[in-house]
Amino acid sequence: MQAIRSSIYLHSVPAELAERDLLFYFNGNLGGTEQFQNYSFGIRQQLRALYGHLLPRATAYAEGNAPAVPYENRVIVTDVKTPRYSQMLSRSTFCGVMPGWGWSGRFEDAVLHGCIPVLLQDDIDAPFDTVLDWRTYALRVPRAQMHTMLERLLVTSKRQRLRMQGALSQVWQRFTYAGVVAAEHRRASADGREPGPGSELARYARGDAVATLLMELKARLQLRRMRKREKNGMVGLSFPSVAESGMTATRSGCEVSNSGIDVSPELPDDILATLNSSVMRKDFDGRVVNGWTI
């Protein structure tokens, strides 16, 4: 909830115009003890081993004690908790996204603060990737290429960064539970109570995470049905890439009524045909990811 309240999208500074003077930021458990040696499949530990040496100077810069630190060295990878977590996310251009024991909320933290998520998790899908094209607002760096991550970030042009931040500003509400806040406000009003915090969020109830999840499930179900029909020779569909299809970051049709009932329209075949086959892999069930069977 704190991440949502401090989201830049609820304040007056647009994501694409917010000053971002830090190149990369990640703050969280880095598996520094024997108890956590297998934490995050070793990915967070690898990140610290590669870039932890930049922390002292980058931290000094962030605190205003080292103004001459080059932008390419403003990389903070730390496990030291800070009350300025939201502020640091809002100051960063790129933010790390890695697994914890399994699920991690770092993707949502980055999106809500207009920070471009950097996915450092092989074979783990991005949230809602059937109905949201994460490639328009996030980057993926394979684990085998983590040692070149900074080079990858630095060659991303300013124009591309602004385009990705603009895409973030179109999808951020998909990662909130604004509908829950709106429902509580309605109950408070009906009971004659003062509404709780988050009134500024309630207006984004349409198209929140619940609505997007319903659309994700519906799209996957329809894709599965279509592939079954195709297997039986009933249809023959190709799945062009998102770039070929010209689809935007947010796909249409995520709708939930005030009572919480899914009223999303069925996706027509021509729209389904534009979904890249990678958004719901044929081997999704039973995959082995970092030694774990999904």
Summarize the entry for a quick read:
The chain has helices at residues 2-5, 43-51, 55-62, 85-91, 106-112, 149-154, 158-171, 178-191, 199-202, 209-231, 242-245, 269-272; strands at residues 22-27, 75-78, 92-97, 116-119, 139-140, 288-289, 292-293.
Labels describing this entry:
five-stranded parallel beta sheet; 12 helices; 294 residues; two-stranded antiparallel ribbon; 35% helix; single chain; alpha/beta; 7 strands
What is the element layout, followed by pairings?
Blueprint lengths: L1 H4 L16 E6 L15 H9 L3 H8 L12 E4 L6 H7 E6 L8 H7 L3 E4 L19 E2 L8 H6 L3 H14 L6 H14 L7 H4 L6 H23 L10 H4 L23 H4 L15 E2 L2 E2 L1
Parallel strand pairs: 1-2, 1-3, 3-4, 4-5
Antiparallel strand pairs: 6-7
- Major sheet: size, sense and barrel closure? 5 strands, parallel
Uncertain parts: 236-254, 276-285
Count the E strands.
7
Assembly state: single chain
Give the neighbour order of strands across the main sheet: 2-1-3-4-5
Q: Can you walk through the features of this model?
A:
This protein has about 290 residues and is of the alpha/beta class. It is about 35% helix and about 10% strand. The protein has 12 helices and 7 strands. The chain has a 5-stranded parallel beta sheet, with helices on both faces. The chain has a two-stranded antiparallel sheet with strand order 6-7. The longest helix has 23 residues, at about 210-230. The two termini are about 30 Å apart.
